[in-house]
Structures are given as structure tokens and as C-alpha cells.
């Protein structure tokens, strides 16, 4: 028995490896074909898509039967481009509610803070923030210059 594996073990291992590679390749191809068919069903005129290059657009024309024919995608109003059908990465699902300008307005309850010209210190004195501190380089920061 030991002599059998010594003589034929490597051949058996190679055959098992080839069978596994063939099986996994077929399985991967079937999965890709299923995904491609599903994408073709979703890719209809009017659907928003993401292209391989990162561009978003809307399908104008697409022939799922002939994948060699280019698809026409509108990337801006009046701007149509022809792309290979495999350049369509995926169909983008629309969001539940489109954002409007009102979504970006500040809330009415948010307090509006005006800039402050002077700051209280720990000892209760007020220090003004004027730019005349630079006139005297020996003066302490945050104090008013002496007249």
C-alpha cells in the first residue's frame, strides 16, 4: 500500500487538483453569467447607473441581447456618451427621498453668536482684542498699551 502512494500519489494529487480547478472555474463562470443576466434585466432606459470610470448617468439605450453594441448613457442633460455594455458597473438604487435645499438650511433654534470685542479675565478685568498690541514689543499680550 505504501508503495502504491509512493508511485502514484503525485499523479492522484494532480488529477484531484485539476478536477477541483475545473469545478471551481465552471462554478465561477455560472455565477458571473447569473449576475450578468440580472444586471441586463435591471439595465433599462431611464435607470441610473454607475460606470467603471466612476461616472454616474442614466441609460438612454441598451440592448441586453447584443452586448457588443454600445450602450448610450446620459451623464448630463443633453450630453450622451456611448460606452461598452460591460462598462456599466451596476444599477444605482435611488434614495428614498431626494435632498432639497431646505435640508441644508440651519435650524431656527440654533443660537447665533456675534463676535466679541473684549474678553473677561479671571480677575474680572476686561481685555480688549485690538491690534495695537504689536506697537510695543515689550508689552504683555492681551493688555492695552499705555498712553
UniProtKB/TrEMBL annotation:
SMART domains: YajC. InterPro entries: Preprotein_translocase_YajC (IPR003849). The chain crosses the membrane at residues 6-23. It holds the Pfam family YajC. Residues 123-134 have a biased composition (Basic and acidic residues). Residues 98-147 are annotated as: Disordered. This is Preprotein translocase subunit YajC. The lineage of its organism: Bacteria, Bacillati, Actinomycetota, Actinomycetes, Micrococcales.
Amino acid at each position: 500500500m505504501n508503495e502504491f502512494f509512493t508511485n502514484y500519489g503525485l499523479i492522484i494529487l494532480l488529477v484531484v487538483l485539476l478536477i477541483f480547478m475545473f469545478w471551481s472555474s465552471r462554478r465561477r463562470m455560472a455565477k458571473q453569467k447569473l449576475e450578468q443576466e440580472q444586471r441586463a434585466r435591471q439595465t433599462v432606459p431611464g435607470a441610473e447607473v454607475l460606470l467603471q470610470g466612476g461616472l454616474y448617468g442614466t441609460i438612454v439605450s441598451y440592448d441586453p441581447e447584443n452586448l457588443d453594441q454600445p450602450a448610450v448613457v446620459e451623464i448630463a442633460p443633453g450630453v450622451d456618451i456611448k460606452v461598452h455594455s460591460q462598462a456599466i458597473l451596476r444599477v444605482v438604487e435611488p434614495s428614498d427621498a431626494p435632498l432639497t435645499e431646505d435640508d441644508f438650511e440651519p435650524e431656527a433654534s440654533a443660537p447665533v453668536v456675534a463676535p466679541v470685542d473684549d474678553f473677561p479675565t479671571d480677575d474680572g478685568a476686561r481685555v480688549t482684542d485690538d491690534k495695537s498690541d504689536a506697537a510695543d514689543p515689550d508689552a504683555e499680550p492681551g493688555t492695552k498699551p499705555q498712553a
